[in-house]
Amino acid sequence: MDKFVHLHLHTEYSAGDSIVRINELMDEAKALGMDALAITDHGTMGGVHKFWSAAREHGIKPIIGCELYVKDDKTRTHLTVLAKNKNGYLSLVKAVNLANSRGLEDRDIFELKDVIVLSGCMSGKIPRLILGNEIEKAREVARAYKERFGEDFYIELMRTGLKEQIALNETLVDIAKSLNIKTVATNDVHFLKKEDALTHGLFVSMNRNMKWDGNVAYGSDHYYLKSAGEMRKLFEDLPQSVENTNEISEKCEEYDLFVDIKLPFSSDRDCETLKEKIGNVSDDRKKRLDRELKLIESKNFCRYFLTVSEIIDYAQKAGILIGPGRGSSVSSLVAYLLGITTIDPLKHDLIFERFLNESRTEDPDIDIDVEDNARDDLILGLAQKYGTNNLAQVGSYGTLGSKAVIRFTGKSLGVNERVIEDLAWRVSGYDSIGKAIVENQEFRRISKSDEVKALVSYALKLEGLIHHKTIHAAGIVLSDGDLTNLIPMTFDGKRWITEFDMESLADLGITKIDLLGLKTLTNIKETLGGKAKREDLMNIPIDDERIYEILKSGNTSGIFQLESASASALTKKLAPENFNDIIALLSLNRPGPIYSGIADEYIRRRHGGAVMKDEFGLDKILGETYGMIIYQEQIMKIAMEIANFSESQADLFRKAISKKDPAIMRDLKEKFVNGAISKGYSENMALKLFDSISNFASYGFNKSHSVAYAYITAWTAYLKATMPANFMVSLMNSNISDPAKLSIYKKELERLHVKVLPPDINESRALFYSEGKNVRTGFAAIKGIGINLGRMIEEERIRGKFENFLDFLSRMKKKVNSKSLEILILSGAFDSTDPNRKYLIDNMEGLIDLSEGGLKMIQQQLFGSEERKALPPIENYPDYSPSEKIKLQRQYVDLLFDLEGDDFEKVMERGHGRVAFQIFERDGLIFATDGKNELPFSYERPLREGEMYEGEFVVKNGNVILSRLISSSNETYIYLKDPSEIDSYISRISDMKDHRLIFKISNFYIILEDKTFKEEEG
Ligand SMILES: [Zn+2]
Ligand SMILES: [Zn+2]
């Protein structure tokens, strides 16, 4: 027999270390005539299911194993372990879970059952001892393994071209002989072919974030899938070590990876419990309920429904807000009656079979929306409820996308960053680099240039490989037993995460439950004071006319699902007048209906445009949508009523027609036409109807989902209309690190006449909050000041306001570094206590010294016994000029300014533009500044200093002048040289309602409100 089985092999699941893709591996193994293959990734079994199924598809026997990491004094050693059967597989899974939580120890290895142990690579314990010249110790370890595993322990020999291996192998063979242990040859596979060695070398450097030195990794190009012939030749002198690979392969049985994971508390009584929980219903619902229950029972989904409802009950008790429902499960009356959803499907005419039917083979899929801030709490709470080992979050793998692989490869190759970014930009919008090369001539040309030729060719080879492990955004797995005995996982200190991804879990029949974080729920809850429950939301009147007013106006920023510019335009055009309009709007608000013109046609008909004659008698089904198919449920209903399809046939029809598979379509067309004929339609009519359905079908949307989300849309519109400041504050807080979004919301606030106040050391909180009629900027919105520091400032202030900068320093000194201090000063946070920003910046060190020394220091300064230089007096210390101030402030809180605006330079260049500016007075003259340049400013109505304005500027006679003020406050600010001018101004203003007139004469302010005077010193 001239066979050889690779028993030490890394796939791409050894993340960052191997470039072996499982399917390519199987093809190559097949081509080399191999009929068995092992997988031994580093410390993980994440790839074993994919490996197992691909191997079986290719007629190759999968041998499941792992290169385990075992704790050793200071470091960790490697050990190759293979499962002999299912029991061994589960034993190995358990070991990996131990390794991934508390770490594996030697004694854990001895607990392994039904496995074959190979002594490992050069990092194995035995080889390490030998290389460290502790040969007797090595022999002892080998003896211990032999005693424990007997014939299933092998001394592993590698000849991968490393010098150290020569002497090492001699000793290994020697120990093997002396202890009567068999040897086995392996090749530690990390790439498929010899010519992949350099690509692998680059990949390894790349994942260590290092510049590539141009060499192969681990000092050799031998780590490829060598043929049996090559391996035999390599071990010519030790033929038994090659023969033993076959022996081991034969010892390993073929088995499946299925495990029996039941949901918690599963019992034979589940369906009765479910019925008990639902209780009695009125007669008109009985028929529907029975139909649903029959199906749920026949599919064995009772426990699933119970579990989901338990999760929701738990969340409600914990005060965690859950959404009204999402996806097709909203169509289930059972889900409604169990409180899984809060929407009555009968009220909205939703078909249950869209969610579950006879033909459906997969698990039901009830997705749960959870307020995003509390999603993690919910998961950890559930872990406590069901047991930490009985719950896992679903893991997932991040792969190298086209852009990422270009960036990583380019960086590792040391290509100029600008060139890399250019290439990354060019590839975006294409599915892959290969596609971009084929479809984009310019990209093709550039990819051949000397500068990036190598980059592109390596990136092509690495694209799509696994890069890192992450957590799936939604899924959790729940079990009535200890999952650590059943599936490989990692532990992050709080919860388990499966090493199998979603597809692997589904393939293995493991049910997952999706908990999705939804920011909007957090916003709604916060707007309502932080305590809102689902019932409170259901009490919001969805037909309140203020909802429809705000939607019609198109001011949809912050309104659920309608935030984008295109959604806002569509909303304005559709001009919703009732809740059904919102449902339709959400269904139409997708690229398909918008670009196909279906949305426009719908809007035309909605507003009285002529509707074509209903030649098919479909008015009952399509009447609510003016004769158009916009919901998938309508397709199902047509199939049932016209073509006599059963509910589950109708659902298949719905699925097939939207996928537009020609073969299935042909088959369906025949069935449809025959069905319609049997119902009395002519063949001609049936064909016509089929064609018109198939044209529209792909644009149809899941109505159940639209109904559920239309509720959230209506709620957010209601809150925005009735509690604008609170609502916008909550939106700003959930987007606090997204300047672009903040700027949109700030504009919306301005439109609503709510002002955003600058940060203030004594007024700001960590987050935004509404302060009277205005909104105060939160510390976390200042670039470089995190939410944590913001919270600490807030906390310290409980003991009293900060008197000034020095007081702040002495109370906060341990918590704030000088960079944060600088940012706080420049962002204007100390303006209310210490208005001279430049003084604080220039003398920060001295001020810090002073605050540290406290009183003693002041005394020392006073009595001159201190060598440190005294602080300069603050009187007459020059502050930054107004434009400098803005420029510096803008770096940290550009929210206060207009992000998209131009500046005065642009206006000069272009002749016009929109600029955000401030006004200041210098030597009796008024200037405007955009933070960079200053210009003499005049306007019919003087403006107040220190406020941001927005205006349209034009160039006239070489000067930039204001042509129109866009935003303005209800204050007019007037600079006077002489008090006698006051009267002439007052006489020009007829209406003083809600308006303040402020005169400034030298340092003296006169404030006029409702034509009464107040005086203040400024
Ligand atoms: Zn190793
Ligand atoms: Zn290895």
How many strands appear in the DSSP assignment? 24
Radius of gyration: 36 Å
How would you describe the shape? globular
State the distance separating the first and last CA atoms.
100 Å
DSSP strand content: 5-15%
Overall structural class, as computed from helix and strand content, comes to alpha/beta
Number of helices: 44
What small-molecule ligands were found? zinc ion
Instruction: Tell me roughly what share of residues is in helical segments.
Output: 40-55%
Mean pLDDT: 89
Uncertain runs are none
Sheet having the most strands: 6 strands, mixed
Name the strands of the widest sheet in spatial order. 1-2-3-4-5-6
Protein architecture, described:
The model has no long low-confidence stretch (mean pLDDT 89). The protein has 44 helices and 24 strands. Helix 24 packs across helix 34. It is an alpha/beta fold and 1018 residues long. The protein has a six-stranded mixed beta sheet with strand order 1-2-3-4-5-6. A six-stranded mixed beta sheet has the order 7-12-9-8-11-10. It has a five-stranded antiparallel beta sheet with strand order 18-17-16-19-20. The chain binds zinc ion (2 copies). The site of one zinc ion has 4 residues, from loops.
List the helices and strands and how they pair.
Elements: H1 22-31, E1 36-42, H2 48-57, E2 61-71, E3 76-83, H3 86-99, H4 106-111, E4 115-118, H5 125-131, H6 135-149, E5 153-158, H7 164-179, E6 182-186, H8 197-207, H9 228-234, H10 239-251, H11 270-278, H12 283-298, H13 302-317, H14 333-337, E7 367-371, H15 375-386, E8 391-399, H16 402-413, H17 417-427, H18 433-439, H19 441-447, H20 453-462, E9 466-478, E10 489-491, E11 496-498, H21 502-507, E12 513-518, H22 519-527, H23 534-538, H24 545-553, H25 565-574, H26 579-588, H27 591-596, H28 598-606, H29 619-622, H30 632-643, H31 647-659, H32 662-678, H33 683-697, H34 703-722, H35 724-734, H36 739-751, E13 756-757, E14 769-771, E15 774-776, H37 787-796, H38 805-812, H39 818-826, H40 837-842, H41 844-863, H42 882-892, H43 904-910, E16 912-922, E17 925-929, E18 934-936, E19 949-956, E20 959-967, E21 971-975, H44 982-988, E22 996-1001, E23 1004-1009, E24 1012-1017
Parallel strand pairs: 1-2, 4-5, 5-6, 7-12, 8-11, 13-15, 21-22
Antiparallel strand pairs: 2-3, 3-4, 8-9, 9-12, 10-11, 14-15, 16-17, 16-19, 17-18, 19-20, 22-23, 23-24
Helix pairs in contact: 5-6, 5-7, 6-7, 8-16, 11-13, 16-17, 16-20, 18-19, 22-34, 22-35, 24-34, 26-34, 30-31, 32-33, 34-35, 35-36, 38-41
The protein binds zinc ion (2 copies).
